[in-house]
Amino acid sequence: MPKVRAALYARVSTDDQTTENQLIKLRSAAKRLGWSVVSEFVDQGVSGAKGRADRPQLDTLLKGVARKEFDVVAAWSVDRLGRSLIDLVTLLQELHSTGIDLYLHQQGINTTTPAGKAMFQMMGVFAEFERSMIRERVKAGLDRARTHGTKTGKAIGRPAASAATERQIRALRAKGHGILKIAKTIGCGTSVVQRVVAAQ
Predict the structure, then answer these.
(1) Could you tell me which of 49, 58, 130, 195 has the fewest CB atoms within 10 Å of its CB?
(2) Is residue 47 annotated as part of the catalytic site, yes or no?
(3) Could you tell me the residue ranges of all domains in the chain?
(4) Which one, of 98, 12, 35, lies nearest residue 62 by Cα?
(5) Assigned CATH class of 4-113
(6) Does the pTM of the predicted model rise above 0.70?
(7) Which residues pair with 42 in a beta bridge?
(8) Whole-number Å distance between alpha carbons of 89 and 128
(9) Exactly one of 13, 77, 84, 191 is catalytic; which is it?
């Protein structure tokens, strides 16, 4: 029976950090589990908040996943792959759809085992919960934005212009002053001036 082909992934956020400690542990785990390490991918000095497009080695790894060049992807920790549960589950789903497993050393997750597969299913449930919470927060933000008379919500939390300010804006506008000059004269934002002018 052929050995399981493992791809190792390591990442550090700054150039003065090293990935070698991560790789040593992953190589040791692969040896213990009887896996054959066929590739190692390292993103040096790249933040975990960056997406796939800004992490060239992760992108190359995932292209290899799509071509089914590996049987399992191993990383030191979940935060080496992404900063959120949704990021992780999206990656897991990509691996799962191609029949490739995931090993996370720090979290003790190994989807080649029945327990690991169960953990994957649980994470999927929590990720869906997180997505629902995000949707609810976005919806609530848009509702607040509509209440304040804006479409995008950028004005949320800012008080509406006072009646006196609105009167000053209208008076200066009537004298032919431009938006920027009115805002500078009164000491308010141009968006406030634009809103009052548009309402005339």
Answers:
(1) 49
(2) no
(3) 4-113, 163-199
(4) 98
(5) alpha beta
(6) no
(7) 10
(8) 9
(9) 13
